From TrEMBL:
UniProt organism field: Nitzschia inconspicua
Lineage: Eukaryota, Sar, Stramenopiles, Ochrophyta, Bacillariophyta
Protein's name in the database: AhpC/TSA family protein
Ranges for region Disordered: 90-111
Amino acid sequence: MKRDRTVEASNGNALFCSTWGKVSTEQRTSKQSWQRNLLLHDRSRRKDATKKKDKDLFERLLTSTRGAIPTENDTESAFIASIKVDQGPKHKVKTAKTPKPTIKTPKEDKEDEMVAQREFFERLIYLETSNALGSIGAAQLVPWVPPYLTDCLVVFADPRSSSGDLRQAIKYLTSNLYEQSDKFWKQVVFVTVDSVPEMRSWIQRTNISTSIRIFCDPDLKFMTAYGLTVKELDSRWSMSLLVFDTDGRKPETVRNVDPSHAAQMALKVMKEYEPKR
């Protein structure tokens, strides 16, 4: 009887051990399966993340190159319809406008030329006042600025210092024959490169009439503007005659004026520019 109990106990222990071993094996198998599934899930998630990253990168690349890849008909940019690209809000790019060339009318061109011609007179120094004419004085002198309109303006100018031709012409023109004509002296002036004191001293020595209008151009700005300082082929400067009309255009120029003919030339010009009646 005792032996039977021993055998029974022994069989029970064997059965318990066998059952426990079987349970432990199943648990280990289940744990390994769970770990394997977790690993596969992680791999799948990383793979999905990589795909999403590649897709985002492709979409950005597609956005940056959209319009640069021509299609068959070259009328639209190539794109993939299955991918919706979020381009964000549209911003208009401001481009600098190319300035249009200014086209002036003939009237505006004429006005600009008249202003430019008048400005050349502003630097001239009036012998009587020792001051530059300025804008107002120049407007009163030139024949095209209202209300100081005259038929023309005759200018005798010489870029040479102490010019004998210019001084001789002044003497001829201030003779008794022309001294009484106010209109004549309103339209005839002289421009010299000599200084104000030098010209005043010469006038006092020669008893020249004070009705004559003389202007000093010590820096030769006026005479250079009208080409009087350009040397001729004989490499010398000379006295010139400039005639300004009421249109304010560039003056007519006569070079190498003989001082003995200055009076006749001035009278002839004034007669030509008198209004026709």
